[in-house]
Predict the 3D structure of the following.
Amino acid sequence: MTYTFPKDFLWGTATAAHQVEGNNINTDNWVMEHVPDSIFVEPSGDACDHYHRYPDDIAMFEALGFNAYRFSIEWARIEPENGFFSLAEIEHYRRVLVCCHEHHIKPVVTLHHFTTPRWVMKLGGWGNLETADRFARYCEKVGKELGDLIHTACTINEANISSMFVINEFAPSIDMMRQAPWWQQAALEMNADPQKMLPFLFAGSEEARQVIVQAHRLGAQALKSGRGSFPVGITLALQEIQAAPGGEEVAARARSFMNDWWLEAARGDDFVGVQTYSRQRFGPKGAVQPDPEAEVTQMGYEFYPESLEATIREAAAVAGIPIVVTENGIGTGDDTQRIAYVERALQGVIRCLQDGLDVRGYTYWSALDNYEWMLGYRPTFGLCAVDRLTQKRTPKPSASWLGAIARANQI
Ligand code: BGC
């Protein structure tokens, strides 16, 4: 049985600036990676040197069969100091966007993917409501200068990422982290108050939620005021939340806190970006670990591709707007496991489409083996391997397999 996807379905791969570009030195993450005893196991360094190698990478994505590429523009490069915009860096991203179009690749652009300029951190970061206005000013600049080349824009990547830490009993609390010497040192280096500084990845407080949603709303308006006319949305980290025995109430609370509150905030947007990797089960005392016999990925969470179908359905029901799967993928050293994962996840997308849900695209995370935040270069999500010494790219069998589906728009 073959299934043909809707016309104009976006088939892409995804990256984020900090994880692939290299030497992203003006960000809070760079500082946090370099302080002693940091919770980041290694620094991002040169990453995949995508900052220089994007022309070959984008040509490779086209040759593989993809028609879209999701990447992020780095705020800290565009606006390295408060109110100072770098025309040279804007030009850099213009070249990246032009390169996509030359290769018949639709650019899906994210304005904020976890990293924040150091100067924003000095002013409190995501705990300060003024960050929303500052983010919108940066979005306005990008919309004005680059909007004519953007196909789809995501304001903030995984706006809800830190709710996963808040709800997870295994994660350190923000108060504990603020006492840690690495945190204090990072704050010192950014001239920030360690008790007030709030990097995006740890912005799980009630106030931070308001700042992030406000930044999204103002950022979306600002992007739309510029050149071009393109859909704008937010992307969310969505896990299928399930109840373990006796955990129904806790699971319902977690679903509302981690998923539905955010999906409700997305109502009225042009689309919502669904980013799903696994499921999370909750017992009466909170999140539970996968069963000992469960297949787990390099990230330690369960191999559970069916969660994508569940989160698409949840997003459609709660947000009631079109959906783009802006991330889905697996960290694994076994490429046949990757193909099995994506195959099963795509079957779920097909069932959603057959039921009439408006799913507009699928971008696999990630195009390249890249910097996986706290876990450094250990997990390998890429369709293409990257030699860390030579930067040579080698597409894995899964890259040609998914590229062929993309080219045919059929499975
Ligand atoms: C993020 C990516 C990350 C991926 C795999 C998502 O949370 O947007 O930056 O690399 O998941 O863990």
Summary: DSSP finds 15 helices and 13 strands in the chain. The mean pLDDT is 97. The pocket of beta-D-glucopyranose is lined by residues 16, 19, 157-158, 237, 275, 327, 365, 372, 381 (CB under 6 Å).
